[in-house]
Each structure stands twice: as structure tokens, then as C-alpha cells.
Design brief:
Blueprint lengths: L4 H16 L9 E5 L4 E4 L15 E4 L5 E3 L8 H10 L5 E5 L2 H7 L5 E2 L3 H7 L2 E5 L7 H10 L6 E4 L4 E5 L2 H24 L6 H11 L4
Parallel strand pairs: 7-8
Antiparallel strand pairs: 1-2, 1-5, 2-3, 3-4, 5-9, 6-7, 8-9
Keywords: Lyase, Metal-binding
InterPro entries: Aldolase_class_II_sugar_metab (IPR050197), Aldolase_II/adducin_N (IPR001303), Aldolase_II/adducin_N_sf (IPR036409)
GO molecular function: aldehyde-lyase activity; metal ion binding
Length: 213
């Protein structure tokens, strides 16, 4: 039996929580959890979250990405998660989602301001935009690394969703919700200020946003 069963179970539980909330699109999105200063657990590539078993969760070395455990191929974003965990040594969890509202803001290629004070304390003053690079490539990892800051714990990936870090997986899930709430607030403000758009269109957009936090 693996000595990392507890970490793998946390990853699977978090996958189910985020999938049920609609923050992981199909098989899109991936999660990582630090095991120790050498290893981390990460979701496999293209897996059905609802069918995951502990043996499916991959264990990789943080420095080389060498696979230590896991019956499946690790996420193509493993290098991005490793980059996050190496930079933020006090953070244990790294979560990449395709949550709808924050992903929409990421298409605008701008930082997402965080207005709510409680959200700012948790996430930082903004969710910084990372320039587009193809998924799973060294180009994306390098673009992401250049944007990492000690006081910012959430990042928009242009055309590719969100990644955030937290002290544990429970807080990482909370971060996902905070980022979505900040995105909803931002979009409401932008829609309300869009005086050139027909009033009926703005009302429909705002009504749709009211179903979100």
C-alpha cells in the first residue's frame, strides 16, 4: 500500500467537490498537493474525476517531475503546479480550474481586481493575468513563473482558466470560490457601466450573473 494514501484521498475528494460545483469542465482542470519537500501528488491526465481511485493519482518529484507512483500519465500541467509549489514553499495545494466567470475574465487579458476586503486578505489585491501560451508547454510554465508573486495567490491564465495556491486543499477550494465571486462582482460592474450596450442586453447579462455568488 502507498504511504501517500491520505494525500491521494484529499486530491480525489477535492476533485469531486470542485466538479460538483461546476469548476472543472469535463476532464479539464487539475489539482496538486505537496506531500513533502521532495514530492507532490497530482491528478492524472484526461481522467474522469468521478472514477478516480487512489492508485490513479500520480506522485512526482518536485525538482525533476519524475513519476514515483501512479498507474496513469500525470497531468500535462504538472510542471506548472511544481513551479507554483517550488515558488510558494509555505503553500501545500495548487489548483487549476476552468470555472466559468473567472475564465471569462481571463479572455479579457487583464488582471482581476479583488474588491472585497476578506477576499483580498486571502488572495491578494488582484488575480494577475498570465499571458497566453499553449497548455502543458514550457512556454506556459515560463510565462507563469514570471508572474508569480509572494503576495498573490491566484492567477488568470489567458484563454485557459485559473490557477491558485493555498496552505491546504480546503483553503484552495475556498480560493476558487473567492475568485469566482470576485469575477462575478467585476463583470457586474463592467456590465452596469456599459452604457453603449442596449439596456435589455445589460439586464439579461446581470440576471444571468445573479445566479452566481
Amino acid at each position: 500500500m502507498s504511504s501517500y494514501t491520505t494525500h491521494k484521498a484529499q486530491v480525489i475528494d477535492a476533485c469531486l467537490t470542485l466538479a460538483n460545483a461546476g469548476y472543472l469542465a469535463g476532464t479539464g482542470g487539475n489539482l496538486a498537493l505537496r506531500i513533502n519537500h521532495e514530492l507532490f501528488a497530482v491528478t492524472p491526465s484526461g481522467a474522469d474525476y468521478y472514477a478516480l481511485k487512489p492508485d490513479d493519482i500520480c506522485v512526482l518529484r518536485l525538482d525533476t517531475l519524475e513519476q514515483v507512483e501512479g498507474s496513469l500519465k500525470p497531468s500535462v500541467e504538472s510542471a506548472m503546479h511544481a513551479c507554483m509549489l517550488r515558488f510558494k514553499r509555505d503553500m501545500q495545494a495548487s489548483v487549476h480550474t476552468h470555472q466559468p466567470l473567472a475564465s471569462a475574465v481571463a479572455l479579457l487579458n487583464i488582471d482581476l481586481p479583488v474588491q472585497d476586503e476578506a477576499q483580498r486578505r486571502a488572495l491578494g489585491e488582484r488575480v494577475a493575468i498570465v499571458p497566453y501560451a499553449p497548455s502543458g508547454t514550457g512556454l506556459l510554465v515560463r510565462a507563469f513563473r514570471r508572474k508569480l508573486r509572494a503576495n498573490l495567490h491566484g492567477y488568470l491564465l489567458k484563454n485557459h482558466g485559473v490557477i491558485c495556491a493555498a496552505p491546504d486543499m480546503t483553503e484552495a477550494i475556498a480560493h476558487v470560490g473567492r475568485i469566482e465571486a470576485a469575477a462575478a462582482d467585476f463583470l457586474r460592474r463592467r456590465i452596469a457601466a456599459a452604457n453603449t450596450a442596449p439596456a435589455a442586453v445589460r439586464q439579461m447579462a446581470l440576471a444571468a450573473l445573479n445566479t452566481h455568488p
